[in-house]
Please model this.
Amino acid sequence: MAEFDESREIAQQKAFDAILRHALAVERNNNGLVADMNAVVDDASKRLAVDLGERLDNLTDGELMALSRYRAGTRTDRLPTRVQGVIKLIDKWVESLGAGIMATWQAEAVAFVESEIDFTNGLMANILVESNAAAVSADAVYRKAMETPALGVFVEGALRDVSRQTRERVYAKVREGINAGQANSEIIRSLRGTPGARYKDGALQTTRNNLSSIVRTGRSHLSTTAQDETYRALGVEQVVFVATLDGRTTLQCASLDQATYDVGGTYPKPPLHWNCRSTIAPYFGGDIAGNRPFVKAFKPIRQIRRDKRPDGMVGQVRASTSMADFLKRSDNAAFAKQYFGEKRFRLFKEGRLTIKQMIRADGSRYSIEELRRRHREDFEAVFGDAA
Model:
């Protein structure tokens, strides 16, 4: 490893501070991409509302029933001509939606990877006496990320599946509406939603929600892949796992916060779950100096009015404080109790269970009954015969 521009402790502090700031910047960037995806769905929903509404109005009762029995992807040549027209309209609409989704994702994907590589190179140049920029190809990193599954799925494949799944929802709502005797306008509202609810009460809101999760998770996958490849090229030997200190962090990420791993080896790389906000930072050994922010809330702080935020909801702790350490602090007991739930909190507070013991290998929580069976003696020690 090259020589540090200042002390190792200062270098580690600078790196950790920069990573935390950068994670917030990436989240804002992701919000912008999610907004762009929503715009694609909004535009598509407007077109579907007009075009499908007109087609449905032209169908007879018999043709509507024929449409209600149609299964997407099956042959249409025996169906009435106007029903075939409706099916072609929906299928072309789905194709256009899928094309818009992929174009929006790919428009800035490689540029995002390049920015992550540049950030990592710049970070290391700022803390090392000599640090030549790693010659890492953004195109190659993007291809590697797209060829490597995240959470068991391929990101581009997941994005393409969104339009297919949306087609199933559209047909399901049409069938449901026809068989329930709904007016065509009611069927359209069930798909698009209503203005009063900002169109969030229609079936297409599921499409927006799914896209948001895939975009945020996919961007996390791109970021981690870019950073990991750049650290490896720069000769960084270890990284530290960094979770977010707030109530939205999963037990899985909380259990790994501040854990260190060898670069190039196999380790739990973010994203560990959908919408994962954890990241990695270069690690040079020893405790991490400086501070890190916390939010003792269970929804984004921007959604909480300033006059509704109690003292101590937002603040900072030492950067070396892990999520587990944070939850053990006596001044965080009320927050920790809400985070864990009553029984898990008491087991954790009294040192009977670690966060890692509360979850399965895949990150899902054990139920209280499962924990009781696995740790009967600990339950009895904490809760007595009532366990």
